[in-house]
Amino acid sequence: MEDKLKHVFEEAINTMNALGFENNDWAVHGKHALRFDGFKVYLRKKHINLIINTKKVPWKIEFLNFVETMPPIHSDEMKTYLNFHEKTKYNLDITPVEEKIFKELEKKELSLVNKKILYLSPLSVLKIREIKIEKSTPDFLGKEKGKRLLNAIQALFEQATKKNNEKIVFECERIINKFDGQFD
Hints:
- The longest helix is centred in the C-terminal third of the chain and has 20 residues, at 143-162.
- The protein has 2 domains: 1-120; 122-184.
- By secondary structure, the protein is α+β, with helices and mostly antiparallel strands.
- 47% of the residues lie in helices and 15% in strands.
């Protein structure tokens, strides 16, 4: 990882700490987590996806699980949150998940320049994506979200196949087969 990006993630740690989160209350998930594990997935420009333990969120959140949250408008927390974007030009997408799920997720640790950050293992990224696909109904996250997530799992399947990573290949196949035809 390039040094500039390491500094962005260190700033994310500072921001999350300033928002009241301990380092073990949250983890990087999604495409950056997969990149940290050596998968060459497409990264959404200037976005960092974080997953947090719902019980640790210091502000009221409307939806408890799998819907991005941010601090209340006009709060000191929102100023801190926006300051991260001002400093880094990156967006923090913060997604809460219930405590039970958060604790079950396998997390790994990555050394940056001066700090360490937690990120989800590829199997945990797949678990979160599977749950989000299940919630991708017209009334909730939307079918388009499910289709995008399924396409991302297909891309990971192809990379895992090239790497002979049987566990990831198996999980990708299982999820792809489970939702086959639901988003056509």
